[in-house]
Amino acid sequence: MRVIIADDHPVVRIGLRMLIDLNRTCVVVGEADGPDSLLSLLSTTPCDLLITDFSMPGNLQSDGLQMLNRVRRGYPAMPIILVTMFANVTTLRAVFAQGVMAIIAKGASATELPMAIKSVGEGRRFISESLRAALVQADAEVQTTSPSLSAKELEVVRMLASGMTVSEIAGYFKRSVSTISKQKGMAMQRLGISTDVELFAYARESGMVH
What we know:
Keywords: DNA-binding, Phosphoprotein. The protein is α/β, with parallel strands linked by helices.
């Protein structure tokens, strides 16, 4: 597999390259130090796998989710492994919703990167043990202190996640756009969610849409 690695820290890139070189099944064909150089490199260098940091400074896409969105739109079939220091559960879900195949905690990359590459090569998802534990714990907390969305709020979230706009939902229920917007806002507030991407990730994780 031809691999591109992206991280703004040269030391991390050296470490990733060494791990990949040991992996015999992969060859590094390019390195990027930020979102801008990554998007430029992807446009000129064919590759089969992207291994990237989540949060890198850059002019174009310094926001990790926006960067992933750009990469995903341009290269929908290319598998992505994320190597990251963050452990925010909502962001983890949003990242998976963007189509990322594997997430590895930076501290565990030496032992887990080869396993992640193998999983992704076989078309399976992979998540670091520590990050998986954070997700399991969050799910357990949701079970015990589940934010109680009203039936209407749940329906609005489900319809939004299935691709309908606020105005289409308003037309469907014969209600005003501001009423539907308010229900969407209340649902997001109760769930502690601030972006549409996170809302869609929540809907997918909750089994509302597939």
